[in-house]
């Protein structure tokens, strides 16, 4: 089955799924942008007291957390094969195209991380993407088996650790230990607040507290990223992400993946809420076991997107968001900078989790409006153009040429 598109043509389904993925990612990233980092991982740490906060946590946990980031990683692997195949078809060496792209992406990611936000994913993609190049010529079956082995290695280890922890009887914290933890959290909040005075202050804070974090991400969660990229390569080469499979196959895959995934997350959310976010319940059910559903949910959401948005005005807008996904991803952080840094909006730490999510729908609307408007006039998104130009060390044509 042919899976490589003709040169200079777009694969619409890839763009649509990518657009949905980058929009979904912002639904959870807004919390990391607007309040202390630890609250991103454990909600009660900050800005979490009202029913609205709990509802928004539950909805994001059930439908979004981990799965849309995984979907984005899957699409990165698929796009890697697409770019390399087209380079080879044009008579260029694949590695001479791929590695400059990853080097340029790493530069963007490091600027993003050190000056703007701790949650950058681009650095990890660039570093792991360099490793993933070694697998790009493998067949879909081999890629799938390799990805499955990596998932089992990483998630199996995490599950084993969860089981061991659950069998240990840990003594309850003393009042003194609780007070120390609260004091430590208060100090962290104050320091992160100071870091949001300006990008320069953020740089100083980051260099002082976590200077090597982008590079340490490779041994920490790079195995999962690599597995997701390999899965994306396999799904692209098999024709799944191109939308060439029979509709009944997409229906079955969506049902077989999304039903158990959503069922688990609904039951886990109910258990956590019932336990009032006790760490003994929260950690295994939210921070550990759901990892098994990250690739499952990514595949299911991809199948569902292909079923629902093959054509139409909304599909075209999602595709435009996907074509400018790099710009949209980084522009979300720029929106966060304007809202939360002291030299602009100064709202960092002032909004609860539920209030922060109210920012999401307007940003989604902005993505759906500006992306097609821009692409009607220009060939690439602004940051896509910068990435392409930097990768090739030559300014690329930007203005869209009207058809004769």
UniProtKB/TrEMBL annotation:
Keywords annotated in UniProt: Membrane, Transmembrane, Transmembrane helix
Top-rank lineage group of the source organism: Bacteria
Lineage: Bacteria, Pseudomonadati, Pseudomonadota, Alphaproteobacteria, Sphingomonadales
TM spans (from-to): 20-40, 46-64, 71-91, 111-136, 143-164, 221-241, 253-272, 292-309, 329-349, 355-375
Domain DUF418: 235-393
Pfam families (UniProt xref): DUF418 (PF04235)
Coiled coil: none
The keyword Transmembrane helix belongs to this UniProt entry's keyword annotation: yes
InterPro entries assigned to the protein according to its UniProt record, in alphabetical order: Bact_Transport_Assoc, DUF418
Protein name listed in UniProt: DUF418 domain-containing protein
